[in-house]
């Protein structure tokens, strides 16, 4: 068995998440029943946010519209539509929150 098949088999039941942040595209896999806290920690790790960095997560719906993920209900809805539409991946955009020092 080739390594790429092993990777696919390991994540056969997981949600493929394409994360776009600061011009980079990163792929990760999450469980269908992930909590908002676990998802937030995954985004902090993959985007390399500082632990106290304030940021926004948005997923892109089937019409191409960005939808904020800030509650468990919003995350659950994103995952429900991902499954309903049989999408190949869930696209998430991370963005640092603006403050007086940061220009966004």
Automatic annotation (TrEMBL):
Stretches assigned to the PB1 domain: 14-97
Entry-linked CDD domains: PB1_aPKC
Recorded superkingdom: Eukaryota
Protein name: Protein kinase C iota type-like isoform X2
């Amino acid at each position: 068995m080739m390594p790429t098949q092993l990777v696919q088999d390991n994540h056969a039941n997981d949600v493929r998440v394409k994360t776009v942040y600061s011009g980079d595209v990163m792929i990760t896999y999450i469980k269908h029943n992930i909590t908002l806290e676990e998802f937030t920690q995954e985004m902090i790790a993959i985007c390399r946010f500082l632990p106290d960095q304030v940021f926004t997560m948005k997923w892109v719906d089937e019409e191409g519209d960005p939808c904020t993920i800030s509650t468990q209900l919003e995350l659950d809805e994103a995952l429900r539509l991902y499954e309903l539409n049989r999408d190949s991946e869930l696209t998430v955009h991370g963005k640092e929150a603006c403050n007086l020092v940061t220009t966004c």
